[in-house]
Amino acid sequence: MKKIEKTNVMRLLDSKKIAYEKYDYTDTNAVSGEEVARTLNQDPQQVFKTLVTVGKTGQHYVFVIPVCQELDLKKAAGAVGEKSIAMVKSKELLPLTGYVHGGCSPVGMKKLFPTVVDESSQKQDVIIFSGGKIGYQVAVTLQDLKKVIPLQTADLCEKMS
Fold first, then answer.
1. Would you state the pLDDT for residue 150?
2. Cβ pair 125, 140 in contact under 8 A
3. Which residues sit opposite 14 in a β-bridge?
4. Which of 14, 100, 146, 148 is the most buried (most CB within 10 A)?
């Protein structure tokens, strides 16, 4: 069993004494969230992606949704009281959050942005999300995640046809 490198996300969870499970898929070619879920042998409804957006007001927001879903921009804007929101461009992600595309975690960003997690998370024992580096994931309960970052839950995803 290889030793998993500690990421800032893991150090932050440790500092708050929050139990979490860590996953390392650095030795695979998994890129998309669904590939990561398959690689980790996890339910894609339980594996979440972190999306960073900007509202019409210029305020940034973080949305955390299942990897098998798409963010409904109208629902997301409504959840945070904005007229509209747009995805942040990949090149703006690192200076804004401290994370690169594909390794963005809702935990440990440079600044604390309003965070909304899809309401489906409430049906899961734990949710799995980026450990803050490509190739690493962590699993925590929604209750424990709330101890680390202020968040709300809302219906955020497009209805599947």
1. 95
2. no
3. none
4. 148
Helix (H, G, I), strand (E, B) or coil at 118: strand
Q: Residue 139: enclosing H or E segment and its boundaries?
A: strand 136-140
Contact 149, 107 (CB under 8 A): yes
Give residues with Cβ within 8 angstroms of 92, minimum separation 6. none
Please choose, from the candidates 61, 64, 57, 55, the residue with its C-alpha nearest in 3D space to the C-alpha of residue 154: 64
Q: Tell me the residue type at 114.
A: P
Buried b (16+ CB within 10 A) or exposed e, 38-47: eebebebbbb
Residue 119's alpha-carbon distances to 15, 53, 75, 151, 153, in angstroms, are 27, 18, 12, 11, 5
The rounded distance, in Å, linking the Cα atoms of 153 and 17 is: 23
Evaluate whether 24 touches 136 at the Cβ level (below 8 Å): yes
Query: Residues 81-134: pLDDT tens digits?
Result: 999 999 999 999 999 999 999 999 999 999 999 999 999 999 999 999 999 999
